[in-house]
Amino acid sequence: MEINPNISKNTKEDRVLVERAQKGDKRAFDKLLRKYRKSVYYMLLKMVKNSDDAEDLAQEAFAKAFTSIERFDATFAFSTWLFRIASNNCIDFIRKKRVQTISIDQPVEGEDGSSMHFDLKDGNLDPNDALLKQQMGRYLKMALDRLPQKYRQLVELRYFEELSYEEVAEKTKLPLGTVKAQLFRARELLLEEMKDIEHEI
Fold it and tell me: How far apart are CA 43 and CA 84, in angstroms?
């Protein structure tokens, strides 16, 4: 990767880390994750207004960036690329959430007595996206099976049973702070395992 001498020191540092991550250096990606985790989280929090959702979406964004790091275009700043992944993922999340709360069969009545019908486009993924999602799901299941039991249980409760952090803490009899810290570590381990699996297959 050729580095333009006119770019900022921060961008240069990111590109060196990206290049190392593309060669399989997990610590390099971990540095990028820790560097941008808070800023991505707060951007998403402004969009979804819910801390749990923002935290989950931030981790999804890093997971997507991690699994597609080889396709990163070095003409862009890594932060720009990452924020675009995070915001696009968040927009999809918001769109799906809105669709789930709207009945497409029943008209919505306005304050003036008028009514309106919604004509929603087909939300199905195109074949390539569907295949990618299916592949990611398979990698995730394989990676989850490799986690230590304590982390696997937390991930299953939070993301498969869709319990809140508070509910996970109550069910596992762990302090809320411990649950959040261990889930963060579990997601880091999942990213590492998914990357290993992708190289193995």
Answer: 11
**Which range marks the domain in which residue 178 is found?**
125-201
Dump pLDDT digits (tens) for 83-105.
888 888 888 888 877 654 434 44
Q: Are residues 98 and 135 in the same domain?
A: no
Say how many domains are in the chain.
2
Q: Within 10 Å of residue 161's Cβ, how many Cβ atoms?
A: 10
Are 160 and 86 contained in the same domain?
Answer: no
Q: Give the CA distances from residue 146 to residues 48, 150, 152, 157, in Å, rounded to whole numbers and listed in that order.
A: 32, 12, 8, 17
Per-residue pLDDT reduced to its tens digit, 183-196? 888 887 877 777 77
Is there a domain that residue 111 lies in? no
Measured distance CA(145)–CA(139) in Å, rounded: 10
* DSSP 8-class letter at 163: -
Report yes or no: 176 and 166 within 8 Å, Cβ to Cβ: yes
Cα–Cα dist 69/167, whole Å: 34
- 97 and 129, same domain (yes or no): no
DSSP 161: S
Distance of CA 133 to CAs 52, 56, 64, 139, 201, Å?
Answer: 22, 17, 11, 10, 16
CB neighbour list of residue 178: distance below 8 Å, 6 or more residues apart: 169
